[in-house]
Design brief:
It is a single chain. The protein folds into two domains: 2-99, Orthogonal Bundle (Arc Repressor Mutant, subunit A), CATH 1.10.10.10; 102-255, Alpha-D-Glucose-1,6-Bisphosphate, Chain A, domain 4. Helices cover 39% and strands 29% of the residues. The protein has eleven helices and nine strands. It starts with a helix and ends in an 8-residue tail after the last helix.
């Protein structure tokens, strides 16, 4: 049994059966980047160890998690006196690992422009304000430098961070701390990566917003589709794109 559990793929198979018991080989193989034969081989080893049992249902062979061998091992080495401590420590481990998990959001768009024009539109405060709900980003754009995000109507900074990587006109990595409200400020810093790749007469822009807390406030990343759509419209047509975000921040009264 220990030999069967030593392989991470076999542990993931057991996790899949724990989440949804009674699965076919076809259903299980779709969740793994390996051949059907490879998944079948791992399942056979789990069956030999008694950790998986199978049952025929018509023409299908269903696989079920069998926790009994694991429980027997637990009972052998965990006494009734140690059980509360073991339960507490495993619960603490689970809570800490859940706190450490992070969320990643990836947005991609193709824009008919040059890499330099796209880079300038991202870093020029006047142009940035045209598609970023009126907010300007000010920095000297050197590695390790700071930047601020502000709006003329707000009177205070809306965000701030550090330019971790600056490689014009292809890659910009920044930390970002939102400041426009106590709820987003409490989320702390996250990371934004802009990647520009020329594709013929166009560019692919990929924006990755990561190091977000799992379940983070969606105000941190929810505006990116509107911002990127506005960026594309401005570069390709020279016109401003009306979005819910641009309407929200259009008047000074919205900041009061």
């Amino acid at each position: 049994m220990f030999r069967a559990l030593a392989d991470p793929t076999r542990r993931e198979l057991l996790d899949e059966l724990y989440r949804s018991d009674g699965q076919t080989l076809t259903a299980l193989e779709q969740r793994f980047a390996m051949t059907r034969f490879g998944v079948m081989k791992h399942l056979r080893l789990l069956e030999d160890a008694g950790l998986v049992v199978t049952r025929r249902q018509g023409r299908e062979k269903l696989h079920f998690l069998n926790p009994v061998p694991i429980r027997l091992i637990y009972d052998r080495w965990v006494s009734k006196y140690a059980e509360p401590w073991a339960a507490g420590l495993t619960g603490l481990k689970r809570d800490l690992e859940e706190q450490e998990t992070s969320m990643e959001k990836v947005f991609e768009i193709y824009i008919k422009t040059t890499p330099q024009r796209l880079w300038d539109a991202i870093t020029d405060p006047q142009v940035r304000a045209k598609y970023n709900f009126g907010a300007r980003v000010v920095s000297d754009w050197t590695p390790g430098s700071e930047y601020t995000l502000s709006h003329a109507a707000s009177g205070t900074a809306l965000g701030e961070g550090v330019n971790v990587e600056v490689d014009p006109p292809r890659r910009l990595v920044q930390t970002m701390t939102a400041l426009w409200g106590d709820d987003v400020r409490a989320e702390g810093p996250s990371r934004i990566t802009w990647e520009i790749e020329p594709v013929g007469d166009s560019c692919r822009l990929r924006l990755t917003h990561d190091q977000l807390r799992e379940g983070a406030n969606d105000q941190l990343y929810g505006g990116w589709p509107m911002i990127l759509s506005g960026l594309k419209t401005w570069l390709e047509t020279g016109e401003l794109l009306t979005t819910p975000g641009s309407l929200m921040y259009a008047s000074e009264g919205d900041w009061q």
